Amino acid sequence: MPLAFPFSAIVAQEEMKLAILIAATDQSIGGVLAFGDRGTGKSTAIRALAALLPAMRVVDRCTYNCDPDAPDSGLCEQCRERKASGPLKARKAQVPVVDLPLGATEDRVIGALDLEKALTRGEKAFEPGLLARAHRGFLYIDEVNLLEDHLVDSLLDVAASGENVVEREGLSVRHPAKFVLVGSGNPEEGELRPQLLDRFGLSVEISTPQDLKSRVQVVRLRDDFERDPQAFIDKYKRKDGKVRRQILNAKERLPNVEVPDAALERASELCMKLGTDGLRGELTLIRAARAFAALEGDESVTDEHLKRVAPPALRHRLRRNVLDDAGSTTRVERAIEELFGE
Amino acid sequence: MTDPMTGSTTDQTTDPNRAGLPDNSARWDDACLAAALFAVDPVGSGGISVRALPGPVRDLWMELLRELLPPDLPFRRIPLHIADGRLLGGLDLAATLHAGRPVAERGLLAEADGGVVQLAMAERIGRSTAAYLSAALDNGEIQVERDGITARTSARVGVVALDEGANEEEQVPHTLLDRFAFLLDLGDIRYREALASDFDPSQIQSARRRLGEIEIDEEAIEMLCGTALALGVDSLRSSIAALRVARSSAALAGRDRVESADVSAAARLVLAPRATRIPMPEQPDEEQQAEEPPPPPEDNQDEQKDQDQTPQQELDKPLEEQVLEAAQAAIPPNLLAMLQMGAMRQRSKSSGKSGAIQSGSLRGRPAGTRRGEPGAGARLNVIDTLRVAAPWQRLRRQERAEKGSESEVLVEVRRDDFRITRYRQRSETTTIFVVDASGSAALHRLAEAKGAVELLLADCYVRRDRVAMIAFRGPRAEILLPPTRSLVRAKRGLASLPGGGGTPLAAGIDAALALADGVTRRGGTAVVILLTDGRANVNRDGIGGRAQAAEDALASARAFRVAELKALVVDMSPRPRPDAENLAREMGAVYLPLPHADARALSGAVQAVT
């Protein structure tokens, strides 16, 4: 694996960085979609995430990285059996960030029979796919809008249920597969199907910085990194460590962050004003605001938190409006201003 | 003699034979310089796209490049319709069955690690192939998750993309171009202008050794980024590529730090071909800039000559201006046309132009296979099904034996093995002309629109697209020509064209929307070309009155925008007023003023957008 560009060395792109941190703090947020211009560091930011995530506790020798503290329903078959005969042994492991490369075949994504064992030993064994590897972590799809339709269908199904069911060659396997879907792409290459769009909790629009100073900085840092990746990473180790501690603290604080009734009301009002479809928008907005408050070290959700996370939480859920020609970002911002504005 | 830093030849100034024709030898020299710089750092520069029809000039260029590339560098050719497995690697079925254990096949990209891959007919490669290449260029490795094989292999490559696109419609995918440092166009260079270059392989070798130590200061980076901004080159990848090229340029010239000549060369070779605006600091109004024709290429060359002859004068100018000027001289001359198309393409949000691509299982060009059951129109792909079944035969035979089944099955295929062919088809594009047939200019507009329809149909015969025409005048709009592919029918249908009367603009837009809606519903792509000056005087109900008519027109325009159709508003009046432009904005259409346009100009504009 080539060395990844450090997260803390990414210039500007504040909204994208925030969305990634929120997803790392609260994995139930439902994924991040980063859509935007070419060459803006979408993939860079997401790949940088892997190096940043704090370790998690997993069941020792479990293929699926089961959580030792999870209830039985959240465990794989083997772990359930193990648990029946005594407490589960835990170890620390890296949170997985799994790349779903374009051109991946369905058997590798979902999992299939182990070819090697079938050929050499004439044995039927299940070989877990990418979805198993991504359990409790992140599944990253670059150029998500170019993904084959039938793969998207399988992904949506698993993402919705949190469980992967494989029925093949008389083999019947089910295992937990809860992951944060992270997608990036360029809207010029094609639109995303609405069903897939809805799966993403946060949607970030990325554009190229237009001021000379940040552009020079991006080019300079990239150049430094390419000339000596290891030295560059070492240089940013402390800053990256700070971000890691921020995530850790936020995860700890998250269950205790309060959401006052006033904030709930505000969120409903905002969603009503924008006419977002369904409850998902409102729910994501509250969750994102809470995670953001936790990241900021605050104890309860305020208007400020809602204002910051409303655009990424809501902009991809707006219905097209006949009488309003403004882009969805502008519409969200206008609604925020009308509601919160002084 | 070629000065690699300015790219201009010293003997070009006084050749009487070349009078009258644009001189392209400077461009050839730039092409040679690009080849040399690419050879210095193929992986770092990502790639080079060479737009030219096959011929002696391109052959010469390729010969030069092959000569300059170090002989020990891997060089692989990627054929146009390469299978994913061959490109990325995957399961080697024959070897697997022979060995009785999975044997992975190395892909072409992995084989070319550290070297160069050459793409033939790059303008026709599939989106997925382009995406794999982009991933390899981004990560320097490929990740394979195919047919039971999981592997990561290093694939640091530089791409030479031979682009044989004949018109604007055929282009190398933008995802790839964005990752390439160099975009060359050898199109207009004549054979006798393609003189031998003086770069030799030993020069490249020593530059390659020196490359790692080249210093670059903040000022140089600022100059490159500033030039990129001034030229409207948005993607930061291009600025980063320009920096690497500047470094290669310094290495090639034997310097140990990047100097202004290197920055100029990088700006000219990397940034200028991607310019989306022509920098004119004294005219900050963007709209005016866009309408200003680009400076003719001859002038630029004069300018360059001047620069060569009067170095003193050049020194007086601020450095940034010099760099910008060098870049400006290399801006493609047809920038304006490309800009307008670019705007259209962005609006339509898909890079394809000949109709949206539909992927399905029934018709069109085969596009791979997937797991699934035949039936409901899906066709079984026998070869792929057998390929999938092959590795499992031993296991299944064993299972059969355990069950005590006696039957002699040679190859056991199970339902899980079924593979069906996926097809991909281009949906048909229907171009709908909506012509304002009212008032005195009606006859002119109608006649030219009719001419354009016929020209398009003559061309559509090749592309299998359809054309329709709606005219509006007096109280209502009328479909003069329903969507058709037949030139004969169009000629008959448009034989007599009534004109004159009031302008029911709203009715015209409504009719276009209704027709376009029908086209989209049947799975086609509709493009609406509205020919008007934007001034309405008849309202929706067919009653005269300017105010109400204008209001109705705007309401119709807004309804039109919601449908998100590709549309072009063409104003052919001799002195265009803002009405049509406003209308275009409300419709979400591209506005194109074409005073005194004729059928040919019109059909050209339409072809640029469809």
TrEMBL record, chain A:
Keywords carried by this UniProt record: ATP-binding, Bacteriochlorophyll biosynthesis, Chlorophyll biosynthesis, Ligase, Nucleotide-binding, Photosynthesis
Catalytic function, reaction form: protoporphyrin IX + Mg(2+) + ATP + H2O = Mg-protoporphyrin IX + ADP + phosphate + 3 H(+)
Pathway it works in: Porphyrin-containing compound metabolism; bacteriochlorophyll biosynthesis
InterPro entries: AAA+_ATPase, CHLI-like, ChlI/MoxR_AAA_lid, Mg_chelatase_ATPase-isu, Mg_chelatse_chII-like_cat_dom, P-loop_NTPase
Domain AAA+ ATPase: 28-328
EC annotation from Swiss-Prot or TrEMBL: 6.6.1.1
BP GO terms, sorted: bacteriochlorophyll biosynthetic process; photosynthesis
GO MF assignments: ATP binding; magnesium chelatase activity
PANTHER family, alphabetized: MAGNESIUM-CHELATASE SUBUNIT CHLI, MAGNESIUM-CHELATASE SUBUNIT CHLI-2, CHLOROPLASTIC
Family, similarity comment: Belongs to the Mg-chelatase subunits D/I family.
Biological function: Involved in bacteriochlorophyll biosynthesis; introduces a magnesium ion into protoporphyrin IX to yield Mg-protoporphyrin IX.
Protein name: Mg-protoporphyrin IX chelatase
Protein species of origin: Lamprobacter modestohalophilus
Higher taxonomy: Bacteria, Pseudomonadati, Pseudomonadota, Gammaproteobacteria, Chromatiales
